[in-house]
Amino acid sequence: MRNTITDRRRKKLEQVLAHRQKDLTLVLANIHDPHNVSAIYRSADAFGVPEIHLYYTDTPFPVLGRKTSASARKWVDTVRHTSPEDLRSSLKAGNMRILATSCSPDARPVSEYDLTLPTAIIMGNEHSGVPEELQSVVDGEVYIPMYGMIQSFNVSVAAAILLSEASRQRVAAGKYDAPTYDKEEYQQRLEQWLEK
């Protein structure tokens, strides 16, 4: 019985890891609400995003409840940054195009971007948006079209919509059909996951 459970767990981990999109990520910039941050981690896991980058300079990273975030944060890695230069060099090392959510006239609808390309999307907090000092690292601005009176989604909802569009494009392009990790990376991550 124990071997059957172990085998099922291993197969599930292998299946999930095979769908991870190592060239897709989110950057959370000074988002203070722990419920939003937890929800973003859950969406990242659901859409196959293996890591989230944190840029917290004027806001402490929120204390996340164990029950609501532990399961998702267990499977989504966290990379912390304290300067725009560090964030940029880390993302560019993965050949990422860096987009920022924005309502500026230069922003384009999310569907106009090819999200099958290596992409990082910066999400700012709901009050002040993406920090001004990160504008120098951004390659483009993105928004989600809306047709009502309200001008913006809750940040966790926006993250899920953006990742859903990326997932839609990537499914159509067959990007979930084969692992994005090479054999060595895949095996290393699988071994780490089996220990969790």
Overview of the structural elements:
With 196 residues, the protein is α/β, with parallel strands linked by helices. It contains six helices and seven strands; from the N terminus they run αβαβαβαββββαα. The mean pLDDT is 92. Helix 1 packs across helix 6, helix 2 packs parallel to helix 3 and helix 2 packs parallel to helix 5.
The overall pLDDT, averaged over residues, is 92
Are there runs of 5+ residues with pLDDT below 50, and where? Answer: none
Percent in helix:
40-55%
* DSSP summary, beta strand count: 7
Q: Give a short account of the largest sheet.
A: 7 strands, parallel
Query: What count of helical segments does DSSP give?
Result: 6
Computed structural class: alpha/beta
What shape does the CA trace take? globular
List keywords for this structure.
single chain; 196 residues; alpha/beta; seven-stranded parallel beta sheet; 6 helices; 17% strand
In short:
With 196 residues, the chain is of the alpha/beta class. Helix content is 41%, strand content 17%. The relative contact order is 0.20.
Layout: helices, strands, pairs:
Blueprint (H helix, E strand, L loop, with lengths): L1 H18 L4 E6 L4 H13 L4 E5 L10 H10 L1 E5 L2 H10 L3 E5 L6 E2 L9 E6 L15 E4 L11 H18 L10 H12 L2
Helix pairs in contact: 1-6, 2-3, 2-5
